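Form P-L/3: holo structure prediction, ligand protoporphyrin IX containing FE.
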Amino acid sequence: MSMAGCFWIVTSIGFFGFALGLILDHFLPLLLNLGHDLPRGTFGWPLLGETLSFLKPHPSNSIGAFLHDHCFRYGKVFKTHLFLSPTVVSCDQELNYFILQNEDKLFQCSYPKPIHGILGEVSMLVAVGDIHKRLRSVALSLVTTMKSNPEFLIDIERTVIQILDSWKGSPQVMFSVEARKFTFNVIVKQVLGLTPDEPHTTKILEDFLTFMKGLISLPINIPWTPYAKAVKARRRISSTVKAIIEERRSRRSDGGGNYSNKKTSHDFLETLLGVESLSEDEKVSFVLDSLLGGYETTSVLMAMVVHFLGQSPTALAQLKLEHRNIRSMKEEDELLNWEDYKKMDFTQNVITEALRYGNVVKFVHRKALKDIKFRDYIIPCGWKVLPVLSAVHLDPSLHSDALQFHPWRWETQDQTCKKFTPFGGGSRCCPGSELAKVEVAFFLHHLVRKFRWRTEDGDQPLAHPYVEFQKGLVLKLEPCSI
Ligand code: HEM
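OUTPUT (holo model):
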């Protein structure tokens, strides 16, 4: 047979295979589930489905055109095709709660494969089953230890003061950058005991930024793509963390292999080193999870609080009054303590409202472990399931004036309810929620007493789905003292 003939046959087979793949990918889930009462909806384009429309950026205090149109056409629960998989999207309070509460029984955490490639298989953020349980129990005990450590609050407040001191004399700052600097410095200190000026901190930050860019890039693992760079950056961060672990071990070891009390640190790492249920790789991965979980989310929350307060002078005035009162009971430079934190009631309401209205995390990834009947439809086994947390937060049938920033609503409303789940729920509920809130509250305590600020018009939090301010949230500053 001629070369041209061979080429024609190979190309035809290839094309036929590709077309068959597309058809199977697209229609097989429907054919297999013909007898089922699937939620209404459409699969969109072959392979891509409706992923691009689903991911289209929109203000994070709205549900965006895609969810708006689909909920209007098909109801709050609908089927579609996202991230290469047939999917059920839920904007329904009851179904979201049911999904989050049934982790590992009916549903399971299921982040897209490329994310596993970057985070690694022993990351708590993607691990499931027994590995997840083991990692999580360590995380919870670490959080408890951390909160009982008196240095915990002092470190956070010192970091706030350091950042705000660096603003002195500046007419403006790019707040998104400053907030990231703050949350990174806090988490690196809490987890690894490092201060901002140590060489390890600079190196981790540099690699971490590359790592974060890769998480939201196309998963193409060839050199020079952001994805490939992120995979490499993760390896470098692992090596740095391993080196820090070794340094810590040798610093603490008395030469005979026993720990001495030459210098006692109070960070996560110190406790983590003594945990026997985790392998060395799991410990390193655990450190990375804490950095990743605690860095971007908290800085986005801070930026949203500052942005919304800038648009709500009444809320800002009440917040200032609360912090002025707290300060009036203390010496000029006396540091804050847990009792002060507990007095920050209105601050808590502001933070809670920013979490509801601003939506740091829009949705979480799950898959159905079996055919699941919910109300009058079936969610087929193996399908992806996306509970959209923001849709419930912004649902006008659940929250009055849902599209208004109104912190006072939390004076009478319980924060632990099905219609408010900014930190997820069930057995994967965020272990860092308290740390995030303390950070924001302490930051506000000093910010409102030292500065007045104005934000630029037109900059708003956009869900990509990761939230960011397009212009970086520039604050025009004026020093003040209350
Ligand atoms: C405003 C701040 C934060 C928000 C909105 C947030 C939100 C969330 C959400 C929604 C989840 C659940 C993910 C899922 O169900 O798949 C989660 C899990 C997690 N978060 Fe956070 N988080 C925040 C701060 C933090 C901080 C400060 C830390 C670390 C110190 C942290 C560490 C984690 C970890 C390790 C998990 C995985 C838990 C598990 O799978 O069991 N987060 N977070």
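COMMENT: Residues 363 and 388 are 4 Å apart (CA to CA).
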